[in-house]
Amino acid sequence: MIKRPKVLSIGHSYVVASNRAIMRQVAQLGEFEIELAAPSFLHGSLRSLELESEADFRYDQKLNVIPLNVYFSKKIHIMYYCGLKKLITQNKYDLVHIWEEPYVLGGYQIARRCFQTQTPYFFRTAQSLNKKYPFPFSYFEKFVLQNSSGWNAGASLVYQNLLNRGYPPESGVIINLGTDKNIFYPDANDRESIRAELGVEGFVIGFSGRLVESKGLDVLMDALKILKKYTSEKWFFLVLGSGPYHDKILSWAQENNFSDRVVVRLASHDEMPRFMRAMDCLVAPSQTAKNWKEQFGRMITEAFATKVPVIGSTSGEIPFVIDKAGLVVEEKDSSGWAQAIAKLMNSESLCQEFQDEGYKRFLKNYDVSRVARQYADFYRQIIDSKQLDNI
User: Fold this and answer.
1) What is the pLDDT of residues 30-46, one digit of tens each?
2) Is residue 136 reached through a cis peptide bond, with omega within 30 degrees of 0 on the bond before it?
3) How far is C-alpha 177 from the geometric centre of its chain's CA atoms?
4) CATH code given to domain 188-366
């Protein structure tokens, strides 16, 4: 039997089982022996997380997920992995896939251990702004890039930014995030069930993400206040997430007599597909700031997969993800947002059109099986190249 190359993918986001969907699909291809490493416990941005099990995923090729202790996970830039020396030295991987930014301590740690063991590696990055990092983070990025066998940009604007930063184009590739249609899918019966549980009526406008200023919640609240100018249809606002704006949204709802049509809830990753099915549209009103713009917008592809129409802002990668499969509105245009929402509320045919177009776009670009194939091809390219170098 021909030995399959052994690949390790490591990253803090793998603490959540749904974030392993791409690697699960790579493993199913049967071309590589895949192992994952992730923190056994992580202080996440929304809540604390323990490493989730793979037991509920029934695939021919099971993922071997290796727990690692970490320190300082409240500050992801300085999160420190324990046990890397033993993991990488003893297992003799043919390739290590670093799912950490090159400028953070964890990414540097992994790259340095690979360098010491002469293990080829590449890294994924979502840097969409040309930032100047202070020492030691600037040193981390330089070391990780100089000693890597390749780099993966998570979106088109990320790729262009990294070329501007001096990243070599010959070793870079754009591979987007993927969404698993076995997890996110439309289900009419489940839709009615979750709407009944929530007590929602009318047109459900959904938001998913961190409840912070940069996610455009101020613009969205302004838009909902003036929505009655453009439609008489009843609406319901379903907010999924946590953060500083939690209480602000509830206060706004009370002040405007919207309390009976607003729900703010922190949903687990497992609950998200069900809540997504309850929506009539998903809104992504992200706002570009001096040090941030939307890097991708995975909630959009999840909505596409669930056949939920999408309205997004012009921030960062959002217009490129949506393309012509939804509506795109200028970031700060509250009136424009109200009109876009009303346009969907007033037209079942337009909603159906975006459901169909969004799902087609999902299958073509963001289906996790397609993304997995891209990663497998990149793995093979790097491994084959290293083998030729050693001849």
Assistant:
1) 999 999 999 999 987 66
2) yes
3) 6
4) 3.40.50.2000
